[in-house]
C-alpha cells in the first residue's frame, strides 16, 4: 500500500474536518452546479432591467452565491458521518427557529415566515430534516422494516411541517413528504408500508382540502379554469403560459422579453424566473437548462448510490430530492401543469435563504462521495 493511500485511510477513520476533501470533490457535479449558477446570474441580470431596486438582483445573488459556496465547501470538508451524528441537534435548532417565527416572526407577502434578524428557518429545516432522518435510519437500521419504527418516522417531519403550515407556507411543507418517502425507500423499509401510506393519504385528501386557506383553494380552482378569474387568481397562470409560449423556438433575445419587462407577469425574478428564461431564450434555451438540471440530479443520485456507507447514501438521496422537488414543481407551475404556489427554482430564482439551501444541498451531495475516494487512495471520479 502506498503512503498516500495509507494517509487517506487514516483520514477516513479520524478526520472530522479535512480541507483536502475539496480536492476530492466530484468535478462533474461541480461543473453542472456552476453552469446553472452562471445561467441564474445572467437571467437575473435580465430581470433587473425591469426592477427598481437600489442594488440589482443579480449583484445580490452573486453575494448569496459566495456565501452559499462557502457553506457548501464547509459541508464537503466535514466528514458526513459527523454531520449525521449532529442530526438531532440540527433538528432541534430548526424547531426552535420555527417557534421564534411563530411567536415573533416578521410578516411579509401574506405570511409570517421570517426571523426578526432576517432569514427563513423553513429553508434550514429542509436539510436539517435530511440529517435527522439519516441519523434515525442508521440508528435503528433493519428495524425500519417493523411497522412501529416505520410509523415513528412520520413524527419527525410532523412537528416542523405543522409549524411551517401555520406560517402559512404550503410549498415548503409539501416538500417534506417526498424527502421522507425517498429516504424511507432508500433506508430499506417494506414497500407495502409505503403503499399503505400513499393510499391513506389519498383517502385523507378531502380532509386536507377543508383545512386549506381560501386563497389556496382559489389557486387550485383557477388552475382547473384560469379564465374563471382572469384578473384575480387566474392572472399569474394565464400570464405565465403566455410568457412561455411567446418565446417560441428561439426566444426573443437576451433582455428583449416584453411580457416580463413590461410587468405583465409578476414575480418574474423569483417564482416565475423560468418564464423569463423561456421568453428570452425560447424552447431550446429552456430545454437546455432543464437538461442541465437533469444532469445535476442524475449525477447526485449516482454519487449517493456509490457512497460506501448507508449514511452517505441517505444524505445524498435526501439532498437530491430537495432540489428535484423544487425543479419539477416550479417548472410544472410555470407551464401550467400544477396550481400556483410559492416554489422557487434552484440557482435561478432570487432569494437569499433558498440560495443558501440550494448550495448546501450541492455540498451535501458532494460530501457523500469523498470517503469512497479515501478508501481507494484516489480522488472522486
Q: What's the short version?
A:
The protein is mainly alpha-helical and 381 residues long.
Structural commentary:
The chain has one domain (3-376). It has a two-stranded antiparallel sheet with strand order 1-2. It has 17 helices and 2 strands. Helix content is 67%, strand content 2%. The two termini are 20 Å apart. It has helices spanning 3-14, 27-47, 57-77, 80-85, 87-104, 121-140, 147-152, 155-165, 170-187, 191-203, 205-211, 214-224, 235-246, 273-305, 310-334, 352-367, 370-376; strands at 106-108, 111-114.
What does the oligomeric state look like here?
single chain
H/E element order: HHHHHEEHHHHHHHHHHHH
| Overall number of domains | 1
Globally, the shape reads globular
List keywords for this structure.
mainly alpha, two-stranded antiparallel sheet, 2% strand, disordered N terminus, disordered C terminus
What secondary-structure arrangement, pairings included, does this model have?
Blueprint lengths: L2 H12 L12 H21 L9 H21 L2 H6 L1 H18 L1 E3 L2 E4 L6 H20 L6 H6 L2 H11 L4 H18 L3 H13 L1 H7 L2 H11 L10 H12 L26 H33 L4 H25 L17 H16 L2 H7 L5
Antiparallel strand pairs: 1-2
Helix pairs in contact: 1-17, 2-3, 2-14, 3-16, 5-6, 5-8, 6-8, 6-9, 6-15, 6-16, 8-9, 9-15, 13-14, 14-15, 15-16
Amino acid at each position: 500500500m502506498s503512503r498516500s493511500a495509507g494517509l487517506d485511510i487514516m483520514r477516513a477513520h479520524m478526520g472530522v474536518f479535512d480541507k483536502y476533501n475539496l480536492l476530492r470533490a466530484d468535478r462533474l457535479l461541480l461543473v453542472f452546479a456552476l453552469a446553472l449558477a452562471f445561467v441564474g446570474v445572467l437571467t437575473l441580470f435580465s430581470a433587473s432591467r425591469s426592477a427598481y431596486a437600489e442594488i440589482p438582483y443579480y449583484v445580490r445573488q452573486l453575494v448569496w452565491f459566495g456565501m452559499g459556496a462557502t457553506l457548501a465547501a464547509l459541508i464537503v470538508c466535514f466528514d458526513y458521518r459527523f454531520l449525521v451524528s449532529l442530526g438531532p441537534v440540527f433538528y432541534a435548532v430548526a424547531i426552535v427557529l420555527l417557534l421564534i417565527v411563530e411567536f415573533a416572526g416578521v410578516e411579509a407577502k401574506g405570511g409570517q415566515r421570517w426571523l426578526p434578524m432576517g432569514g427563513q428557518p423553513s429553508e434550514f429545516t429542509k436539510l436539517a430534516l435530511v440529517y435527522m432522518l439519516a441519523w434515525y435510519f442508521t440508528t435503528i437500521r433493519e428495524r425500519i422494516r417493523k411497522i412501529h419504527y416505520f410509523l415513528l418516522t412520520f413524527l419527525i417531519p410532523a412537528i416542523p411541517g405543522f409549524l411551517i403550515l401555520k406560517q402559512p407556507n404550503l410549498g415548503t411543507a409539501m416538500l417534506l413528504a417526498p424527502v421522507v418517502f425517498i429516504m424511507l425507500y432508500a433506508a430499506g423499509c417494506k414497500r407495502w408500508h409505503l403503499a399503505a401510506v400513499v393510499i391513506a393519504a389519498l383517502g385523507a385528501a378531502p380532509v386536507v382540502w377543508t383545512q386549506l386557506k381560501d386563497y389556496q383553494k382559489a389557486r387550485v380552482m383557477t388552475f382547473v379554469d384560469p379564465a374563471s378569474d382572469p384578473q384575480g387568481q387566474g392572472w399569474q397562470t394565464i400570464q405565465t403560459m403566455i410568457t412561455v409560449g411567446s418565446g417560441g423556438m428561439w426566444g426573443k433575445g437576451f433582455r428583449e422579453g416584453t411580457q416580463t419587462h413590461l410587468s405583465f407577469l409578476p414575480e418574474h425574478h423569483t417564482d416565475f424566473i423560468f418564464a423569463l428564461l423561456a421568453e428570452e431564450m425560447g424552447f431550446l434555451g429552456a430545454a437546455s437548462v432543464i437538461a442541465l438540471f437533469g444532469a445535476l440530479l442524475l449525477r447526485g443520485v449516482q454519487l449517493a448510490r456509490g457512497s460506501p456507507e448507508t449514511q452517505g447514501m441517505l444524505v445524498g438521496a435526501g439532498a437530491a430530492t430537495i432540489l428535484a422537488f423544487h425543479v419539477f414543481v416550479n417548472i410544472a407551475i410555470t407551464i401550467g401543469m400544477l396550481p400556483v404556489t410559492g416554489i422557487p427554482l434552484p440557482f435561478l430564482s432570487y432569494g437569499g435563504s433558498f440560495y443558501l439551501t440550494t448550495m448546501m444541498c450541492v455540498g451535501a451531495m458532494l460530501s457523500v462521495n469523498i470517503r469512497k475516494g479515501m478508501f481507494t487512495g484516489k480522488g472522486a471520479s
